[in-house]
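Entries read chain and fold; for instance:
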Amino acid sequence: MPILLSALQNSVLTLTLNRPERANAFNAELIGELQRSLRGAARDPAVRAVVLTGAGRAFSAGQDIEEMRAGGDELSFLEHLRRTYNPLVVQIRQIEKPVVAAVNGACAGAALGIALACDLRIAAETASFVVGFNGIALVPDSAVSLFLPALIGLGRASEFTFTNAPIPAAQALEWGLVNRVVPGDTLMDETNELAVRLAQGPLGAYGLTKRAFNRAVLPNLEEALECEGQLQEVAGHTEEHREGVAAFLEKRRARFVQTL
């Protein structure tokens, strides 16, 4: 079974993360497939808009922690980000075609960064957004440190990063984290309707507009991604992180502070 489903209809390329048994968590293979698909979409004149969504009940849980653990203590978080999420985020921002995220369920961690990099976000009523990183004693990466405060404000971003509390779809709409909230059973129909309308629009002007928005709002995107990676390299080799991962896998509350 392919881990990334691809369908082109009415000039709209729909890419579906397809690891539902792992809540569509990203592993190296899935990230690579998504990078290749976006490169192809950027070059293909038949593709005039892109939709990104998830199979099953989740959009994506973010990075597959089991895969990261397999890397052992020698894993370089910085090099991992340079190969995976950093170029993926830049691809989404630089493809001169509209990219719409159809957030069908839980969206957490690196997947939050991927969704926020998209031009538009339509969420199902049951969707929720979790920053996730601090839960395992990591720092936000995948440009979450840039996108999230820009969209909902520094105070809210700090609260929901520190507490790891979910942001429900209705709250996400009120704060401007998403563009629309729709019933789950109409999510893809409404997303496709919007994407087809965009695909029929002035593609050249869309691309130039994305360049303008990137220059005005995200001029330091690549610098921010690199900074996140350097900070993650520090956070990822701490006892706090090891405890956070152990607690996550054991489904218990992390004990970050030893008490007498």
In short: The beta strands are 4-9, 12-17, 49-54, 58-60, 99-103, 106-108, 120-124, 128-130, 167-168, 180-182. Residues 4-185+199-203 form a domain with the 2-enoyl-CoA Hydratase; Chain A, domain 1 fold (CATH 3.90.226.10).
